[in-house]
Amino acid sequence: MSADLLPSAPFAALNLQRYPVKHAKDLQAWDAADAYLASFIRKDATFVLLNDSFGALHAMAIQCGAAAVFHINDSWCSRHAIEQNTRADWIDYVDQSVTCAMVKLPKSLSMLEAQLLQLASGVTTPVEVYFSGMQKHVSNGHLALIKQYCDDVEYLPTQRKARMYRANLRPNQQRMLPYCQSVPELGLTLQNVAGVFAEQKMDIGSRFFIEHFSQLPSAKTVADVGCGNGLLSLAYHQRHPDAALYLYDESKVAVESAQLSFAANYPQAAVEILHRDGLVDVAQQFDLILINPPFHQQNTITTDIASSMFTQAKRCMHAESELWVVANRHLDYQADLKKQFRRVHVVAQNAKFVVLKVMR
Ligand SMILES: C[S@@+](CC[C@H](N)C(=O)[O-])C[C@H]1O[C@@H](n2cnc3c(N)ncnc32)[C@H](O)[C@@H]1O
After folding, report:
1. How far is the CA of 238 from the centre of ligand 1 (A)?
2. How confident is the model over 347-357, as a mean pLDDT?
């Protein structure tokens, strides 16, 4: 089917759900960029899908009779949605031979670069790649990277505000190394894998939170939910080296960064770092839970993930446990926390952030 004939209707028949469902509300599990990419799926072809958000592309590939589908994807939540929506086996791309790649452009340019290099290292001849994203999320930087690693770059007409580029990705054996970020005030060197939160510069919310770490209780067990590169846990470990630390993030590059950062700074620390959706299915209780909550899922701004993290945290707290949250003041997490918890205490605030101590 040609791209200009493609309606988004085929997705409606697939009954796709976003994950987490609670956040979906009236949001659908595909966009015009998915619809545009799907118009290039061909029967019997072998695809690698980069950043398929909720399985729209994978489901359409199955429907069109694709021979095989592989994935390059950072997100645990996307993987879960894709498995739920397609009921197909998930296969990571590990140098399999493919006819074509389809890329939903990620927000992070360095993540795109690392993903292109991962794909390029697995091919021995140029591979055809379609790149798409909604125009408000596609920058000149995306195009510059495509031009850097691909030949024959073509601009296809924008459709329903979705950009589309087609190009041939050259084989390439380069790999991106983690960015070593020194944090002199803490005596740490973070190992930031491409695409991790605050990859090039420490988040100012995390910095403000850490300034108040002297007030944190001495806990035996600590959960760091949405751990990113592990900065909060590393800073806690400095003050309380005997605490057992449990770190969770739905981003694979976050988990890798936290693992590398602990190995580089405190290889002996008692730490478990897990790739998952917050504390879903975690049965353990913690004395202390630390959260610097995310406020977007892919390109959608939302406070729903933070709210779910608070609900999950409550389930993992005993009567004396403390939940500490650093929050952007304008997002008013405090109101949400007050609905869910009996005691919400402001520990510190400045013009932008508030640090909250919460108990059941
Ligand atoms: C604001 S960053 C905080 C990172 C780190 N704790 C810090 O303070 O620098 C939020 C983190 O939450 C992660 N995240 C987003 N959704 C998540 C989810 N459903 N489960 C676990 N982590 C999630 C993001 O990948 C990101 O690393």
Report:
1. 21
2. 97
